[in-house]
Design a protein that fits this description.
Keywords: Membrane, Transmembrane, Transmembrane helix. InterPro entries: AA-Vitamin_Transporters, EamA_dom, EmrE-like. This protein is mainly alpha-helical and 304 residues long. The protein has 14 helices and no strands. The radius of gyration is 18 Å and the shape is globular.
């Protein structure tokens, strides 16, 4: 799965050693996130998409609760609950749920190109919420990036959008909203607290739905292969929780802008992961569109 914005912005440039460590941690986080779609597709091949999406949030929420308790983290302030709810809606519920459904019929390599526009979509929401005035070049790159993913979806869909394409587009918009809100909130509280409280905030909704969904399917779930459960375990532990710890720590050490650039590698790593885990063909067309999207995102972020 794609990553959040940073928690700590330092007024001083990082030391060389800290800079390199931050880049390394950022690369580890991006590598972990890049396998989200392939492992999701592995899980939903045998498990219900709703269970996969919300069950992974429930597992991650248990880990988040234990971590917050161990850290003796303070409760969020009253004005922080609404942004946390938006983070939960976009990152804990919306993106996992919609992508889980889409991965039932969509190759992970296809989804990798569509999700590649997420960093730029997040920047758009951050601009709108922050009331900034970006350059015309930024908006041009935003439109160009959107046109690229639309063209890719239409080309691979035989000239029309499939339902799975629409689900991915909606997932990207929800995730971008959640990431932008999380980035703003992370200026006032540690980023690890942001994702942990967002996970706990989703539990009252997630828990009853997971129980209601899982009980009638318990016999089928018991027959699911170890590969499906491995996929579920990965996205629960690494995509929804541990990956963010590497990401936020890396940005704290190496700087937001510098470490954030590692995110541009994610579509290519997802394509590689899909080829290795799912044996999906690594086509020249997918690589070409992924490269074009990455270039547009990189230019757009510089023009912001």
């Amino acid at each position: 799965m794609p990553s959040h914005t940073s928690t700590i912005v330092s007024n001083h440039p990082p030391r060389l050693g800290a800079d390199r460590t931050g880049l390394l941690l950022g690369l580890i986080a991006v590598a972990l996130f890049s396998l989200t779609l392939p492992f999701t597709r592995l899980a939903v091949a045998e498990l219900d998409p709703t269970f996969v999406a919300l069950g992974r949030a429930l597992v991650a929420a248990v880990l988040a609760g234990l971590w917050l308790w161990q850290q003796r983290a303070p409760m969020p302030r009253r004005e922080q609950w609404l942004p946390l709810a938006l983070v939960s809606l976009g990152c804990v519920l919306g993106f996992p749920w919609l992508t889980s459904i889409a991965m039932r019929s969509l190759p992970a390599s296809h989804g990798a190109v569509l999700v590649g526009i997420l960093p730029l979509a997040t920047a758009v929401f951050a601009v709108l919420r922050g009331k900034e005035r970006p350059s015309p070049g930024f908006w041009l790159m935003a439109l160009l990036g959107t046109a690229l993913v639309v063209a890719f979806a239409l080309r691979q869909g035989g000239g029309s959008f499939h339902l799975a394409d629409w689900l991915i587009f909606a997932a990207v918009l929800l995730a971008a909203l959640g990431y932008a809100e999380g980035g703003r909130l992370a200026q006032a509280m540690p980023g690890q607290h942001v994702i942990s409280w967002a996970l706990l905030l989703a539990v009252p909704f997630v828990l009853p739905v997971v129980l209601w969904n899982a009980w009638p399917q318990r016999a089928l779930m018991a027959q699911a292969s170890s590969a499906a459960w491995l996929g579920f375990a990965y996205i629960s532990v690494f995509s929804m929780f541990i990956g963010f710890f590497f990401w936020y720590r890396g940005m704290a050490l190496g700087g937001v802008a510098r470490v954030g650039q590692t995110q541009l590698l994610q579509p290519f790593l997802t394509l590689l992961g899909a080829a290795l885990l799912l044996h999906e063909p690594l086509t020249g067309e997918s690589l070409l569109f992924a490269g074009a999207v990455i270039a547009v995102v990189g230019i757009g972020r510089k023009l912001k």
